[in-house]
Amino acid sequence: MTENSDSNKTKGRCLCGQVQFEIQGELRNIVNCHCSKCRKFHGNFGAYTSVKVENLKITEDKGLKWYQSPTDETPNVHRGFCSECGSSLFWHPEDKPDIAVTAGSLEEPTNLKTIGHIWCCQLPDFYEILDDLPKFDQRWKT
Question: Is the overall model pTM greater than 0.85, yes or no?
């Protein structure tokens, strides 16, 4: 985990600004998800940090919509996105204390580093992972 400066607060938003949020406290470093659902949601792999749900404050939600993802890998998952500009923003399993936040939605500097890859068993045929970071066939193993 890494801590952010500016009173340990991180801001984020969608492309058009109809969804804005603040995160208080620590963010997990970035994990890239290569599952087929993230690729469809993002147009490629998903790069996510993670925070405690109570540390995420939505400050503007005009465009925020939630989609219940198919349940074959993780039940009760909701994906948050902006209905105005289409930005992918959140991944939240309802019964878990953490919510994943897309790294690209965060204001810089984030001071985060990519630490690994998950769902590599679903890697598509149009790219390969060329770094030496940890790779897992399914979920992140800590």
Answer: yes
